[in-house]
Design goal:
By secondary structure, this protein is an alpha+beta fold. The strands form two sheets. It has a four-stranded antiparallel sheet with strand order 4-3-6-7, with no helix packed on it. A three-stranded antiparallel sheet has the order 1-2-5, with no helix packed on it. It is 19% helix and 38% strand.
Length: 110
């Protein structure tokens, strides 16, 4: 039983390690909704990043990450409390991150 558990854990480590190593640790967060402001962190320093926003209209912008791999971008759009939103960031050096609020559960206002 102990050998089977060791083999199972070893095989999981072999499968999980490439997936973890291949991915990026880049992160996007929604900083504000009016105007729509997106903050990126953990991108490659100096990396060119293309942001694509899918909202009531599609918007895009290309920015360059700073020395610490971060950036903040304001878009000329306002996000309502229940509006769906999808923001994708694709870096020229392979960093990727997404904010997906397309399936938000919106409760009635109090």
């Amino acid at each position: 039983m102990r050998v089977a558990a060791t083999l199972l854990l070893s095989s999981f480590a072999l499968v999980a390690t490439p997936a973890l190593g291949a991915g990026s640790c880049a992160k996007l967060t929604l900083a504000d909704t009016a105007p729509l402001t997106v903050k990126g962190t953990r991108f490659q320093p100096g990396e060119r990043v293309k942001l694509v926003v899918s909202h009531s209209v599609s918007l895009s912008r290309v920015v360059r990450a700073g020395a610490r791999g971060g950036f903040t971008v304001k878009f000329n759009a306002n996000l309502g409390r229940c509006d769906p939103l999808l923001v994708r960031a694709i870096g020229a050096r392979g960093s990727r991150a997404t904010v997906d609020l397309t399936q938000i559960a919106c409760a009635p206002a109090p």
